[in-house]
Design a protein that fits this description.
Strand content: 5-15%
Shape: elongated
Number of helices: 15
Distance between the termini: 6 Å
Radius of gyration: 26 Å
Structural class: alpha+beta
């Protein structure tokens, strides 16, 4: 532990400000010095912004298809300064290969597709409620081919489907971890605070759940979802399955910390003062190990995302017409398809970026949540 006069060495604050600062300020001052954590927070903020307004950001709707542009390659945006600033992409010139009998696409510089910000395009409903036609960026003339990240087998825009898929895949992590937080905090806190028979019973339940192999349990529970359920019911079922499995680690962490601090002087003082047990747990004990909870939660969200992706990739999770990153990866199972359309793997890259950003953010929050530790 460094001397008080030497702490914190890099916050940029004076000693008088540090001594009177609240815990939130101390956490923020230390967190913003971690560049990787800040970068992870920015990336996640952008991803969740895309997910929240995916209908507006996407240049089309996820179900719009054009068979004539099956496996069309990505287009490159060109910039022209003639008569002002203009954006455009080259249209496609297609022909069937005599060797492979597959349709091949090449750029056609003579046919340009003009682009602009906030064009009117396909109709959609923002959050399924507000009808609109304005998109963030797309062709000036609606209906022209525009595939920045290429197209899939049915000629659907991959960029649009990636943006729509972020809403499902990223919200599965938040909702699943939220449910896991409630279960882990409640059962772990009760187990560590009361002990005795209650502790033994809860721990045996946790050990039973943890002893079952995770992937087979996921597959079994996901296969139990009735095939006739609609996309929304299936979505919530998968989220519930992931959260019911993922709360055990957090419960173990909270229990161990409760056992450690339940005999501290401030806890005993609160009990002697007649404070309710629920208030002792929520107001006095949980804040003492906030960093542990943050670290566990931020590591659980990537696990939830990867779990949904794995189930959907194997065909036992979400199914079309639902669009998620795992569903999009189903198209990447065919080696022959990947040899001609490698851009279908971009949904896997989206998962990697989200998971890495969450890990960076979690490490930064874990370190910053205990600002008095050098």
């Amino acid at each position: 532990m460094t001397a008080v006069t030497d702490w914190p060495p890099a916050t940029g604050q004076t000693s008088s400000e540090i001594y009177v600062a609240s815990q939130r300020k101390l956490i923020w001052w230390r967190f913003r010095k971690n560049r990787l954590a800040v970068a992870g927070a920015v990336v996640l903020g952008l991803v969740y912004l895309l997910a929240a307004f995916c209908e507006f950001w996407a240049p089309a709707t996820p179900d719009t298809y054009r068979a004539t542009y099956s496996y069309a390659p990505p287009q490159r945006i060109h910039v022209s300064f003639q008569g002002g600033l203009h954006f455009f992409v080259d249209d496609y010139r297609s022909q069937v290969s005599r060797k492979t009998l597959l349709r091949e696409f090449t750029p056609d510089p003579n046919q340009r597709v003009a682009l602009r910000f906030f064009p009117h395009g396909e109709k959609y409903k923002l959050w399924g409620v507000f009808p609109a036609t304005v998109h963030f960026f797309g062709p000036v003339q609606a209906g022209r081919p525009f595939y920045l990240l290429g197209a899939d087998e049915q000629g659907r825009d991959l960029l649009t489907r990636l943006i729509y898929g972020s809403r499902v895949s990223m919200s599965v992590g938040l909702i699943g971890v939220g449910l896991g937080l409630v279960l882990g905090t409640a059962l772990g806190g009760v187990s560590g605070y009361f002990g005795g028979v209650t502790d033994t019973l809860i721990q045996r339940i946790i050990e039973f759940i943890m002893s079952v192999p995770t992937l087979p349990l996921w597959l079994g529970l996901a296969a139990a979802v009735p095939p006739g359920w609609g996309p929304i019911k299936t979505y919530f079922a998968i989220t519930l399955i992931l959260s019911l499995i993922g709360w055990t680690g957090l419960a173990r962490v909270i229990r161990s910390r409760f056992l450690q601090i339940r005999s501290e002087d401030y806890v005993l003082a609160a009990e002697l003062d007649g404070v309710r047990r629920s208030r002792i747990i929520g107001r006095h004990m949980l804040p003492a190990f906030t960093s542990h909870i943050i670290a566990t939660l931020t590591l659980s969200i990537p696990g939830m995302i990867l779990g949904e992706t794995a189930l959907s990739f194997l065909g036992l999770g979400l199914q079309p017409p639902v669009v998620s990153w795992g569903v999009l990866l189903q198209d990447a199972q065919n080696i022959r398809v990947l040899s001609t359309a490698p851009w279908l793997l971009l949904s896997g890259a989206a998962v990697v970026i989200a998971v890495v950003a969450l890990n960076f953010l979690g490490d930064g929050l874990r370190d910053a949540a205990d600002p008095y530790d050098s």
